[in-house]
Structures are given as structure tokens and as C-alpha cells.
From TrEMBL:
Keywords: Repeat. InterPro entries: Ankyrin_rpt-contain_sf, DUF7708, GPIID_WHD, NACHT_NTPase, NPHP3-like_N, P-loop_NTPase. Pfam families: DUF7708, NPHP3_N, WHD_GPIID. Residues 280-417 form the NACHT domain. This is NACHT domain protein.
Length: 1160
């Protein structure tokens, strides 16, 4: 039975309704209907051709002619039974016209739509011939209706892509997915063409309708699943930090009404407006404890209703694992987490160096931000992370703010000198501690009333306490933390003790800390005092926080207990023991603020805690623990299970990962000159009793300067410690899995890793997979090891220690550690290892497994002699190696100067292959020019190649000669400001610090005027020099005169407070004068009239520079120098005011401290 014309027309009408419903854009649909004929499409293509001709990049629009003629053919056939409805014709011609117009604004997109349309044109049958030939088959009209659906499917996919507001940013990432979906439609067209040429029946038509829907739905499901898998694999590999828990914790403790003043502030309201480009970055600055973090959480809550909201709450206690890169990673994955399109951008953009390269990660984040629309980014606690890392982060933020038009940033921190130097003039600023007194009073009132209800004070007692607390908000001077500490310190006191405590409130935050420390030091019995001090020292001495369960286990570890029979029998109330300066957050124990650590470890306060001794104490605890019976390499599995259930492995994760770092911290401390016998004895026990007889990690280990103090007297220990350090470094980079122990276990010189894999295997056997927990050990394990006992099996993953709450969450996480995309070429290294995403696999195939393109020189027209020189310059710059090979005879005939110019060009823009081809290694001087050219071009690949050649060719040079060469390179490297170039250079620089004389020479080479001048007035370059000084230990055990000389150069060259702070911290004498008649450092700065010089003068005064010092042959005073007279222009205070303020600040410090930098 045939389908009637009316029934076919219904199919067309249904297809139109489906298209309009899925398009979800009435305005666009109306625009499509404005075009009704092929003539209008040709008019549009002719206009595009004319415009492109004017711009000089004419495209091949003739390629789409088969498609347009095929549609003309199709429209003439269907008009018979569709009654030539204008809407149907408009839907045939309108979309292609719009697509060509939209895509023409970007070369790649225009080529893509033209090529795709051309491919479809080839598939379209000769509709008139086919319908004539098969006119006897009434089902042909149904096939024509199927083609109409196919055409609309193609248009729908393309229109939805090109109607995205930011499709230009998304094109490279998202178009491949849309192109693949169009290919599904093209497959339908091929099948439908076959139907037209065969005896088609009704059941075929019905099957095709169903197949079309199923194929498109299957594509969507499969593509979404694969994309999600790619994304989760990359996310797991990068392991970005999540700050949601910290935000929730802050929201649970914020006082109602706190921050209302900020939300009403005119500057903040202006910042919220994404159309206002004058306020891209807002800086919330204030003194420590002013409530900046809680204000930042209020900002996050506000901006979530306005657009994408990203945030990072940085903390001092995670400094070792927090870098500019880790923060960028977190922001990147926060932004992409709920948006399929942005995930596709991330997957398509990802490279292997995403995990390790800040510039690559920032580029991807910039792309995501450009695609996402309004985005608000809040970063709190910038001042709490490493100086170098925060400098790198802030520079990236400044760059992103310039190109991401709808992105707003809030930075929250103290106004530290280095941060001020970077952000000065780039941000709007709100000073928090000058505005929050009302919020502090509300905080005091709320917490006091809660406290009164809990303690049930009599009315007269309440009235008395309220009177005593009346001045608390005023005394806080903008510090919530001060008010919190005072209130917490009286929480459990009786009325008489409360009177004594708050009748005279502490003057400052340090005074409040002093009272708490004094109370701890007077605890009775003395063992309680010792425990409290030990706990405070442990909390502050390690780079990663301890959990409360780990601390409980550590307290029962004893050197006398070699079997490790000590057990945790009760919970520890650490806040009750140590007072309100500590808190437990998500099982981790930490100080309530980083200023607590600064205070209690300060050597300038009475009864302070020694940081080095605390690191030693915790390190000895960990080593003792690892030497106890529960870590015996011969222990039976049943004993391991028994130990797990008794809680004996509470400290295992922390001890195995941190024992070596704690020892390094101790031996690197300035106060440590002799290694204690107790430590040496324990390390020798560890070395002998935990010796891995199967060790196969090599005998040669890189020198570990941190462990040099062991080398001379205890060479065996030094060797073991170096091997352990190397193993830990390998584990941090490699994807080692505990269940695949055979691939890495022999790299550990100790048996600790072997025992660890056995412990984790038993953990997995004891933990049940069920959520109902019947007849299992889960409750016992959770009591000892927290609510997250399911640990990741990968050694370099943060969840190896942090864990998951359920088996399923852990397994989902581990699954995304896999690299499922394998290379298909036999013998390739990645045939088994695989890649995180399809994009990485495809890039690998394109790069390494494409057939080599052979240049047919015979077809190349031989250029005239006048043309050969400019041709070679073009080819070398474009890195056309194979083509240049064809002209080597002509190259050899060129003059030396021209050859040198081509070689320099190759070093800047080419590849190592091009350099190998045309470089003539005439001399070391010539190689040096090539190296410098690669630096100028920021060509990292060539730079690394040339450095490796230079190192190989200078093996016979003396050490001093090589040091001189490296130092000369350093000027160019630092001056480039390229972090990638700097990292490559560091790989080849082996500073000779073996003897005092060589150490002295090396220091002089890396503190010259040229070195410091190369980074002048550029915070990014300064951070590279700081990194060099730190990592290469340039000033380790250095003569004070060299450090002071370096400070003199810094003051004279660029007045960098960052560099000056580093040198002052290491003992530079700020009042030193080189000889009779020489100027003091302060006067050198005062002779300059720049903002940097003004900050330098303030810094030197705060560090104790003498404002009355003078060069002996001069009568002019420092105060009368031009820079000193005009300092108010930059700092808002006169010279006398700044001098008085600096003297007032230093008068509060003990005499010993006042002679040093205020940061110490």
C-alpha cells in the first residue's frame, strides 16, 4: 500500500516542527525564513567572494556548487507533492546562506563548512532522474521525505554550533564533535540514496525513520560518555584541589550579617558589574585576622547568583603542595566541571605538559574563561603561600584580566611588599580592617549570648562580664581573630578567672597569644605542659597537616617499645590541651591562623618553641614507628590484619611519606650544627633493619645538598638517605600502583614500600563493599583511621592518604587514573601505556606516525640566483627542513655572514633538525650566539638541544670556565623572563660548590650587576632569580660581605623589595658603607624618584636603616634627597612620618629582633 501525497506532506510538516523545537531559537528561525530561493544563496556567495578577494584570501566556494545544485534538483522534485510551500523552500536555502555568512568570519570555520557541504553534495543523488526511473514505486516520495529530515538534521547540528555566542573561541575544540555528528547524518544520506535506487517498501521506510533517531541518540550518548571519560581521566591525573569543603566550613561559622558593608560598598558594586571593564581586579587587603577569608566566602556566595564562580582558599599549612600551577588547575576544573562544552574544550586542548607547565595551564584556563561568559574568581590567602609562587600566580592573573573581558578577580591578602609591587596601579582596593568594626561587635554579641546560654550565668554575672567585654571590639583594631582568641580563652573559666583575664585586655594579638602560651607553660603536671608544647611543635613543623588519629598514634610511640605494642585507648581533646589557637578541620589539626605559628616559633619571645627541635621530635617519632614490629618485613598477613584492627597503622601513611622531609628540615635549620646521637642511632637501625636486599635503583644517586651534613662522618647513611630521596622523587612523578609492585618496589632502598603494599592489600580485604555494613570490620577501621578508609592505590595521588568514604567512590576515582587511549602502531612505547584522552592519542599519531612527506625536488622550479637568499630565509623561518635539504648546494655557496644569519634565524624559529642541517659548529663563540638566539626566540626545544651540545663539547673545559659560561647564559636566560627557558637551563647548570674557594667564585658570578640588572623592574624575572638563589643554595653558609654586596647592587639597580627581603633575611647589613665617603644604601635609594625606590626606602627603614647616616664627603642629608622629599607621592606619607612609623614599629620589638628584617 502506497503512502498518499497528503501523508508525505504530514511527514514534511512533522520534520519542520521537530527542527523548530530542537533549534530553540525563534529569532533565528524567523531569520532563516527570509531566504526562499537558490538565487539568494548565490547572491550571498558572490558577495562573500568579492569581500574575500579584497582581503586577499579567496576561498574555493565553487566546491559547494554540487551541493547547491543537488538541493535545486531536490526542491524541484518535491514541490509537486508539497505544494511548493514557502516554509519548506526557506528551510532548504535559508540555513546554508546563514552558515556561509557566519562561518566566513573565521578562516578555519569557513573552510570547515565549505568542505563539509561539498562532501554532502557528492552524496546527494540525481533526484529528478531517480524519481523518473522509479516512478512506478510510490514509496520514493517517502524517501524524499527522509532526505528532507537528513538536510534539516545537518542544518540543525551546524546552526546550533554557529549560533553559540562564543563559537570562535570554541571552534577548534567543539567543531570536531559536531563534524562527527554530521557524518552520522551523511551515513543516513548514503543509505537513503541506495533506497532510491532499489525497490523500496514501506517497512524499509519505517525502519529508516527508527534508525535515524536511534543513530543520532546513540551518537549523543556515546560521545557524551567518551568525553566525560576523557575529562575525568585528565582531572584524576592532574588531581586539582577542591575548596568546596573549606567554603562549607566557613559558611557554617560565619556570623550573620558579617560582610553586609562590603556588599553595599560602591567599589564592590562596580566590580560586580561585568560590563564595567575599569574594575577587573579588586584587592581586599588588611592586617592578619581581619576576617578577609570570611569576607571572601561572602563574595563567593554573592557571585554564585550572577555567573560562573570559581574560588581558592589558600592556607599556610598547605604551602608545600600549593603552587601557582595547582591554583590554576583548581580554577580550570571548577569552571569545566558542570559544562559539557567547556569539558570538550579542555579535552581537546589538553597536552601532557598541562600537569607540569604553568603557561600551558594558564592558556587553557584563559580559553575556557573566554568561552564561559561572566566569571567571578575569588582567591583568598595569597600572602600565605610561597613568595615565588604568589608572584607567578599574580602575574598570570594580570595577564588573564587583560584578555578575558567578562572575568572579574578578587584577591584577598595582607599588603605585603612583593604583592603591592605587582598589584600597585592594577587593582581597585578595599581596606578591610578599617571597615569591619561593626561586624566584629556583631560577632562578639552573638558569641557572648551563645556562651551565656551554655554556661547559664546569673543575670548579675552576665551584666558584669558584658561590661568587662565592652571595649573588646574597639581593642580588636579590625581583627576578628583577636576577638575570637580572647573570647575562646575565657570559655571554660569561672567568674573570678574571667575577671582576672579580661579586666586588662591584651593590647595586641601577640599579647593574646602570649597569655595562651604562658598558660600552657604553667600547666600541671609538667608532663601535661610537655605534651601541649610537643603537640604545638608537631602541628607547626611539617608541611602537610597531621590528622587527629595520626597524632593520637604518634603520642603512644616510644623508643623503648620496639614491638609497637602501644595502643590508642581514648580520644584526644587537643583544643582543651593546647587552647583556642588550634582547631580540627575535617580531621586535620591546624593552627587557627598562620600568625600563631609565626609567634610560637619566634626565637625572640620568651619560652618559644624551637621549630628545628619539633621537626626532629616528629621525625624521630616517625622513624621509631617504622622500626617497630608492625613494620617488620617478615610480618605475617594475619598479624597485619590484627594490627589494622587494633589501630597500629594509624600513623603509617604520614610516617612513610614524611619521615625523610622532617629530617631534612631539621638538618637544614640554621640553628643545627651537630647531629644528635639519638638521630644517628635511629637512622642506622632503620638502614639495617629495613634494608631492601632486592634494591635495584642504581648505585649513582644525585647529590642531595640538604643531606650534606651526613656525608663525611656517616657515608653509608648519606647513601641510604640519597637513595630514599631519589625514590620519593620518582614516586611523585610516576604513576606507580600498589598492586603492580613488581614494576617499582626494587627502587626503594628500604622495605617500607613493600610492607606498605601488604598493609593496603589487607585493608582492602577487611573493608566491605556494602553500604549496610553487616558483620564487618568497617566501624572499627573508621574509628581508628577516619571516615575515609578507602585509599587510592596510586603512590603520587593525594587520595593515597586522604581517602574516600566508600568503596565505589574510590573505584570510580582509580578508574580515571587509567590511560585508555592506546597507540595502534606495534612497538610504540604508548602501545601499552596509553594516553589520558583521545586528543592526546591523536596528536601523538599526527606527530610521530604520519608517513614522512617526501619533497619531490624535481618538481621544484630552480630559483634565480637573486631569489635563493630570500627563499632560504623564508624556508628556514618556516622550518621546512626537507625543502631546505634540496637547496643545500645553493646554501653552501652563500657568504659566511649570510649563512650565520640563516643559522641565527634557525635557532630562533626553527627546530633542532634545521640546526643540524645548516649550522656549522665553527666555534664555542658561534654556538653561544645560537644559544642566545634561541633564548631571544623563546625556542625551548632548540635551547635544550644547543645546551646539550655545549655541555658535551666543553667536557674538557675546566670547572671555572664552565661556571663562567653558565653565568653569562644566566643573564640572557633571566632577562628573557621565560620560565620554560629557565627550567631547561637549570637542568644543565651544575654549580660547583665543593670547596670554599669555588663556592665563593660561584656566588660572585651569580650576584653580579649584570645578573641583577637583567631582572630589574620585572617581578616575573625577579622570581626566576629568587628561584635560582634558593634552589642552588647560592647563599648557604655564605660570608656576610657577599650578601651585603648583593644587597647594594639590588638597591642601586632596581630597588626590588623582593630581592632585598631575601638578602636581608640571610644577614645582609643594611647600614654597611663600602669605604670612606661611600653612600649608605638608604641614600642610594633616596636619590631616585620612582615608586620602587619609595618602597625600598620604607623597607630599609623598617629593617633598621639609619635615616641620619651620610657619606663622609657629603653634607647633604638623606631627608634632603629628591626621592625622600617626594616620597609622599608614592606612599601617602612624608619622610618624617615614615621614619617615625618605622622607629615606632621597631621599638616594639626586642633588641635582638630589631636588628633584623621584620619578616624574621
Amino acid at each position: 500500500m502506497s503512502t498518499s501525497p497528503n501523508a508525505v506532506q504530514v511527514i514534511f510538516e512533522n520534520a519542520i516542527r521537530e527542527f523548530k523545537a530542537n533549534l530553540k531559537n525563534d529569532g533565528l528561525y524567523s531569520n532563516i525564513l527570509k531566504t526562499n530561493s537558490i538565487d539568494e544563496v548565490y547572491d550571498a556567495t558572490n558577495k562573500l567572494q568579492e569581500e574575500q578577494a579584497k582581503k586577499g584570501h579567496l576561498r574555493h566556494l565553487s566546491k559547494i556548487e554540487p551541493y547547491l545544485e543537488g538541493l535545486r534538483n531536490y526542491s524541484s522534485v518535491i514541490e509537486v507533492f508539497t505544494q511548493a510551500k514557502p516554509e519548506i523552500l526557506a528551510l532548504i536555502w535559508g540555513p546554508i546562506k546563514l552558515l556561509l555568512q557566519w562561518a566566513s568570519t573565521l578562516k578555519q570555520s569557513f573552510d570547515a563548512i565549505v568542505n563539509t557541504t561539498a562532501e554532502i553534495g557528492v552524496l546527494l543523488p540525481e533526484f529528478q532522474d531517480a524519481t523518473t526511473l522509479f516512478s512506478h514505486n510510490k514509496q520514493v516520495n517517502d524517501v524524499l521525505a527522509l532526505f528532507f529530515q537528513d538536510i534539516l538534521d545537518f542544518y540543525l547540528i551546524a546552526l546550533k554550533f554557529f549560533s553559540l555566542t562564543r563559537w570562535k573561541y570554541l571552534f577548534e575544540s567543539l567543531w570536531p564533535r559536531h563534524r562527527d555528528k554530521i557524518k552520522v547524518v551523511m551515513n543516513h544520506m548514503e543509505r537513503h540514496t541506495l533506497l532510491m535506487r532499489n525497490e523500496v517498501r514501506l517497512e524499509h521506510i519505517q525502519a529508516e525513520h527508527g534508525a535515524r533517531l536511534r543513530a543520532l541518540e546513540h551518537f549523543e550518548r556515546t560521545e557524551k560518555s567518551l568525553r566525560r571519560q576523557d575529562y575525568q581521566n585528565i582531572e584524576t591525573n592532574v588531581s586539582p584541589r577542591n575548596y568546596e569543603g573549606r567554603l562549607d566550613w566557613l559558611h557554617g561559622r560565619i556570623c550573620e550579617g558579617t560582610g553586609k558593608w562590603l556588599l553595599k560598598d560602591a567599589i564592590f558594586v562596580k566590580w560586580l558589574d561585568t560590563s564595567d571593564t575599569s574594575t577587573k581586579i579588586l584587592w581586599l587587603q588588611g592586617i592578619p585576622g581581619a576576617g578577609k577569608t570570611f569576607l571572601s566566602s561572602t563574595v563567593v556566595e554573592k557571585t554564585r547568583s550572577l555567573g560562573h564562580t570559581l574560588f581558592a582558599f589558600l592556607s599556610y599549612n598547605l604551602t608545600s603542595s600549593t603552587s601557582a600551577l595547582s591554583i590554576i588547575h583548581s580554577l580550570m576544573f571548577q569552571l569545566a566541571s558542570t559544562n559539557d562544552d567547556l569539558q570538550a574544550v579542555l579535552c581537546q586542548s589538553s597536552r601532557e605538559n598541562l600537569k607540569s607547565n604553568l603557561s600551558a595551564a594558564t592558556d587553557i584556563l584563559t580559553t575556557l574563561l573566554s568561552c564561559a561568559g561572566p566569571v567571578y574568581i575569588t582567591i583568598d590567602g595569597v600572602d600565605e603561600i610561597d613568595v615565588v609562587e604568589r608572584s607567578r600566580l599574580l602575574r598570570q592573573i594580570l595577564e588573564m584580566s587583560k584578555v578575558c573581558g567578562e572575568t572579574k578577580f578578587i584577591i584577598s591578602s595582607r599588603p605585603e611588599a612583593d604583592i603591592t609591587a605587582i598589584l600597585d596601579g592594577e587593582t581597585a582596593t578595599i581596606r578591610v580592617d578599617n571597615r569591619n568594626s561593626g561586624s566584629i561587635q556583631a560577632f562578639i554579641n552573638l558569641n557572648t549570648q551563645k556562651w551565656f546560654q551554655q554556661r547559664d550565668f546569673l543575670p548579675e554575672a552576665r551584666a558584669e562580664i558584658e561590661g568587662l567585654l565592652a571595649p573588646l571590639a574597639s581593642n580588636s583594631k579590625g581583627m576578628f581573630l583577636y576577638a575570637k582568641i580572647v573570647l575562646s580563652s575565657i570559655e571554660y573559666l569561672d567568674l573570678g578567672e574571667i575577671r582576672n583575664e579580661i579586666r586588662a585586655l591584651p593590647e595586641t594579638l601577640d599579647d593574646a597569644y602570649a597569655r595562651i602560651l604562658a598558660r600552657i607553660n604553667s600547666l600541671r603536671p609538667p608532663t601535661l605542659k610537655d605534651k601541649a608544647r610537643k603537640l604545638l611543635g608537631w602541628i607547626g613543623s611539617c608541611s602537610t597537616p597531621l590528622t587527629i588519629h595520626e597524632i593520637e598514634q604518634a603520642l603512644v610511640v616510644s623508643q623503648e617499645d620496639t614491638e609497637g605494642k602501644g595502643k590508642v585507648l581514648s580520644t584526644l581533646n587537643i583544643v582543651q590541651i593546647c587552647g583556642p589557637i588550634v582547631e580540627v578541620v575535617d580531621d586535620y589539626v591546624q593552627f587557627v591562623h598562620f600568625t600563631v605559628q609565626e609567634y610560637i616559633f619566634s626565637p625572640h619571645i620568651k619560652d618559644s618553641i624551637n621549630a628545628a627541635d619539633s621537626a626532629l621530635s616528629l621525625g624521630i617519632c616517625c622513624i621509631t614507628y617504622l622500626c617497630q614490629g608492625h613494620h617488620d618485613p617478615e610480618i605475617l598477613d594475619e598479624d597485619i590484619r590484627r594490627n589494622i584492627l587494633s589501630g597500629a597503622y594509624r600513623l603509617h601513611d604520614f610516617a612513610t611519606t614524611m619521615w625523610l622531609e622532617l629530617i631534612e628540615r631539621f638538618v637544614c635549620s640554621d640553628s643545627v650544627h651537630i647531629l644528635p646521637d639519638e638521630l644517628i642511632s635511629l637512622l642506622e637501625i632503620l638502614m639495617h633493619e629495613r634494608n631492601n636486599r632486592q634494591y635495584n635503583g642504581g648505585t649513582e644517586q644525585p647529590t642531595q645538598w640538604k643531606l650534606e651534613s651526613f656525608k663525611q662522618c656517616w657515608p653509608e647513611l648519606y647513601d641510604m638517605l640519597c637513595k630514599s630521596t631519589g625514590f620519593h622523587q620518582i614516586c611523585s612523578r610516576a604513576e606507580y600502583h600498589k598492586s603492580q609492585r613488581d614494576t617499582w618496589i626494587k627502587l626503594d632502598p628500604l622495605t617500607i614500600s613493600d610492607t606498605s603494599t601488604r598493609i593496603y592489600a589487607q585493608f582492602d580485604q577487611l573493608l566491605c563493599k556494602s553500604a549496610k555494613h553487616k558483620n564487618c570490620h568497617c566501624h572499627t577501621i573508621q574509628r581508628h583511621y577516619s571516615q575515609r578508609p578507602f585509599k587510592c592505590h596510586f603512590l603520587n595521588c593525594s587520595f593515597r592518604r586522604h581517602g574516600f568514604q566508600t568503596w565505589s567512590l574510590r573505584d570510580i576515582h582509580i578508574k580515571h587514573h587509567d590511560r585508555p587511549w592506546h597507540c595502534s602502531f606495534p612497538g610504540c612505547d604508548f602501545e601499552d601505556g596509553g594516553f589520558l584522552s583521545r586528543k592526546m592519542r591523536d596528536d601523538h599519531l599526527d606527530r610521530f606516525h604520519q608517513e614522512a612527506q617526501v619533497v619531490d625536488v624535481s618538481n621544484l622550479e630552480k630559483p634565480d640566483s637573486d631569489e635563493i637568499q630570500p627563499l632560504l630565509f623564508d624556508l628556514v623561518k618556516a622550518d621546512k627542513v626537507d625543502t631546505v635539504k634540496a637547496f643545500m648546494t645553493e646554501f653552501d655557496s652563500l657568504g659566511d655572514n649570510i649563512k650565520t644569519g640563516l643559522q641565527i634565524l634557525a635557532a630562533r624559529f626553527g627546530s633542532p633538525s634545521m640546526l643540524e642541517l645548516i649550522a656549522q659548529w665553527k666555534s664555542t663563540y658561534h654556538e653561544k650566539n645560537l644559544i642566545h638566539a634561541s633564548i631571544d626566540g623563546k625556542n625551548v626545544e632548540n635551547f635544550a638541544y644547543l645546551l646539550s651540545r655545549t655541555k658535551e663539547n666543553t667536557k674538557e673545559f675546566g670547572s671555572d670556565s664552565k661556571q663562567q659560561t653558565y653565568a653569562l647564559d644566566a643573564v640572557k636566560v633571566l632577562g628573557s623572563g621565560s620560565e620554560e627557558i629557565f627550567k631547561e637551563w637549570k637542568k644543565y647548570v651544575d654549580l660547583d660548590m665543593e670547596s670554599d674557594a669555588k663556592r665563593h667564585r660561584t656566588r660572585l658570578l651569580y650576584t653580579t650587576q649584570d645578573i641583577i640588572r637583567s631582572v630589574a623592574k620585572n617581578p616575573g624575572k625577579e622570581s626566576l632569580l629568587l628561584m635560582l638563589w634558593k634552589e642552588k643554595s647560592i647563599f648557604e653558609n655564605c660570608d656576610k660581605a657577599i650578601i651585603t654586596s648583593a644587597l647594594r647592587i639590588v638597591v642601586m639597580q632596581d630597588c626590588s623589595v623582593n630581592l632585598a627581603q631575601f638578602l636581608v633575611d640571610r644577614g645582609a647589613d643594611i647600614n654597611y658603607q663600602t669605604g670612606q665617603g661611600s653612600l649608605p644604601f638608604l641614600q642610594h635609594a633616596a636619590r631616585k624618584t620612582t615608586a620602587a625606590a619609595a618602597r625600598m626606602m620604607e623597607f630599609l627603614l623598617r629593617c633598621g636603616a639609619n635615616p641620619e647616616a651620610r657619606g663622609n664627603h657629603l653634607s647633604i642629608k638623606i631627608r634632603d634627597e629628591r626621592g625622600a622629599k617626594g616620597i609622599s607621592k608614592w606612599l601617602g606619607m612624608s619622610w618624617d612620618e615614615i621614619v617615625a612609623k618605622a622607629q615606632e614599629e621597631r621599638a616594639k620589638l626586642p633588641a635582638e629582633k630589631s636588628a633584623k628584617s621584620p619578616s624574621q
